Amino acid sequence: MDTIDREIQAPNSGRKHCGWVTFPFITGAVLGLGLAGTGWMANLIIYLIQQFNVNAIDAAQVSNIVNGGSSLFPIVGAIIADSFLGCFSVITLFSSISLLGTVFIALTATLNSLRPTPCNGRLGSFCKDPSWVQFLVLYAGIALGSMGLGGTRFTLATMGANQFDNPQHQGIFFNWCFFSQYAASAVGATALVYIEDNLSWGLGFGLSVAANLLALLIFLLGNRFYLHDKPQGSPFLDIVRVMVAAFRKRNFSLSPMADDYYNPITVEGAPPNKAFRFLNRASLKAEGDIKTDGSGTIAKPWRLCSVQQVEDLKTLVRILPLWSSSIFLSTPVAIHSSLTVLQALNMDRHLGQHLKIPAGSILVIEIVACAIFLTLIDRFLWLTWQNLTRKSPSPLQRIGVGHVLNVLAMAVSALVESKRLKMVHHHDRDQSQPRSSMLALWLVPQLSLVGIGEAFHCPGQVSLYYQEFPASLRSTATAMIALIIGIAFYLGTAIIDFVRRVTSWLPDNINNGRLDNVYWMLTVVGVLNFGYYLACSRSYKYQNVEKQVDADTNYTYG
């Protein structure tokens, strides 16, 4: 199998390069890019409606596509990083693409010729549609911005983790990486959105451009300190080769002898393990599979693979059930986000007499809760756990805590919504009462539980995939959570459509529905998925985590 050569691209070698010296540069890039992306994505629907005369449904569809695409595109960036360019080049390229897209969006807000005349409250028939040039510039900016944001999001996490050999330090880095992402999102969804709504769209988007540019410059300034990975070939091609070779040799009998299986000359011979034995045929040597020139290299790569290539594919197969359980962990969260906004729209959002919280900003509570607990987990909870048990929690334990908190969040959401509906129905019987006097602050507990749950399971998942995936798939490993979020986003949309078709729980006016039943349904789904997760985690055996820990540190995973 092709390997990844780790080499220091710095003027002087030594431990002053890589490690924590790179942390400010990579974290600075995470903060800047996160702020830039949230600055235009968080308010995209309002911008399309107010400045481009797009109707609300179409604006929501555009926003959905952007959110789904920015969650799925990290996989593309990770594949390119693992297979062709490496993390540094991919981050530089996609940060530049994001910058170009954000510039296009900012231009539509600053140049009158790049947007139509606003409707200004007039009837739809008097609204002027954008020209094809205006739409071209706008959607080019949105596409480039979304592509660039997605391409850097988890590749940055991979490159940061690559700077450390100690799994404990990698886990700490992942915590701070997620903290930085959530902190940037919180600032973008509040400060920049406020500037765009109340001061100037051009100024708000211009600040996003500045944040993106600053992030790119900070990242490039740290180049002399980075430990670079130099990819050689596509690891995904190796995976396909193993499957093809195993199928072509499906009639061969397996051998108990290690010498009958192919290992490169530079690798000590060892037979493949007995798990998924049908794949072992891919490394079973046959006549004509190896060159006769004495080099010991493979003559027919689609008929023979190395034992290591076979074991890498087995690693992916082993972790697939755990990964699938995370999809149904994230799907309720995706559904909950949109439904909570609908709840907030029908609640009293005033803070005092003059300040009213925008319904869309209510989700910032989730971001803030996650960011706070990422810090508490890193500084206090894990240290307490280590003092009590003499070992640190494993990635699977972190994810398990996230499952439990997610179930609790859905149950609390159901209880709060049930109380809200009772108050609404009470008004229907007593018209002297206000429509709904329930404060939107009642949504804080459920949003906080979701955010705290993410503080546990998101870094846990990234740490698990990064440490367990084959070395050649490290960038893809950290992007797996982005793939989960993207699938959960679209799956959640399909579930809501299904519920609306077969029940009356989600009418256009949720005051006439049973949103609490939807939350109870998600609670049941969460409990069942947690049971599935427990079954998968109990049968899973770490491939790399414990080996790395035992070899490098006294930090052990349970």
Helical content, roughly? 55-70%
Q: Which residues sit in consecutive blocks of at least 5 with pLDDT less than 50? A: 1-16, 431-435, 546-558
Radius of gyration, rounded? 26 Å
What structural class is derived from the secondary structure elements?
mainly alpha
Percent of residues in beta strands? under 5%
Alpha plus pi helix count: 15
Average per-residue pLDDT, rounded, comes to 79
Question: How would you sum up the major sheet?
Answer: 2 strands, antiparallel
Total DSSP E strands: 4
Gross morphology: globular
**Series of secondary-structure elements, N-terminal to C-terminal:** EHHHHHHHEHHEEHHHHHH
Strand adjacency order, main sheet: 1-2
Q: Termini, distance in Å?
A: 31 Å
Family: Belongs to the major facilitator superfamily. Proton-dependent oligopeptide transporter (POT/PTR) (TC 2.A.17) family.
Protein name: Protein NRT1/ PTR FAMILY 2.7
Pfam families: PTR2
InterPro entries: MFS_trans_sf, POT_fam, PTR2_symporter_CS
Describe the protein's architecture and organization:
Belongs to the major facilitator superfamily. Proton-dependent oligopeptide transporter (POT/PTR) (TC 2.A.17) family. It holds the Pfam family PTR2. InterPro entries: MFS_trans_sf (IPR036259), POT_fam (IPR000109), PTR2_symporter_CS (IPR018456). It is a multi-pass membrane protein. Keywords: Membrane, Transmembrane, Transmembrane helix. With 558 residues, the protein is mostly helical. The chain is 66% helix and 2% strand. It has 15 helices and four strands. The chain has helices at 23-41, 44-52, 56-85, 87-110, 132-162, 167-198, 201-221, 235-248, 307-345, 364-389, 395-429, 444-468, 474-502, 515-539, 545-552; strands at 5-8, 227-230, 350-351, 355-356. The strands form two sheets. Strands 1-2 form a two-stranded antiparallel sheet. Strands 3-4 form a two-stranded antiparallel sheet.
